[in-house]
Design brief:
Layout (H helix, E strand, L loop, with lengths): L1 H18 L22 E3 L9 H5 L5 E5 L5 E5 L9 H5 L5 E3 L15 E6 L3 H14 L1
Antiparallel strand pairs: 1-4, 2-3, 3-5
Length: 139
């Protein structure tokens, strides 16, 4: 008789489950719903970046690198394969320049690039070479 008693206890739960809405997603037939706190692509406002390096210092996976030549000449490099999308860089930036958006990372056919230059504040090497060439011709 214990099996009948257990079935009687389970019947109300079964009835509630049958009356609930479907909890699956309709992805192939409709758009995918992304949660509001989803962390996707790393975006940066390059004009506002000051090269302080706080985002680089606090990144636990070493996905950011700052190549600094002087106070106003630097490059901020992002390594997407290393990034764990923790959001620490966004929290560390005191100028509110770096953000993790809720965009998906775009698919690629081949291997993804191993690094992206987010900010490039260095003088153009080509412009310096052109200046040197014109000065050599004048002499």
């Amino acid at each position: 008789m214990p099996s009948i008693r257990s079935l009687l206890c389970m019947f109300p739960q079964l009835w509630e489950t049958l009356r609930e809405r479907v909890s699956t997603v309709s992805f192939p037939f409709g758009p995918s719903e992304v949660p509001t706190n989803f962390r996707g692509r790393v975006r940066i406002e390059a004009d506002e970046c000051r090269g302080c390096g706080l985002c680089v210092r606090d990144c636990p996976s070493f996905a950011l690198e700052l190549e600094k030549e002087s106070r106003d000449e630097y490059r901020l490099i992002y390594y997407p394969r290393r990034c764990i999308f923790c959001g620490q860089c966004e929290e560390s930036c005191r100028f509110d320049v770096i953000h993790l958006t809720n965009e998906f990372v775009k698919p690629s056919v081949g291997a993804r690039p191993s690094r992206e230059v987010l900010v490039d504040r260095r003088p153009d090497d080509d412009a310096e070479e052109e200046v040197d060439e014109t000065s050599d011709g004048a002499e």
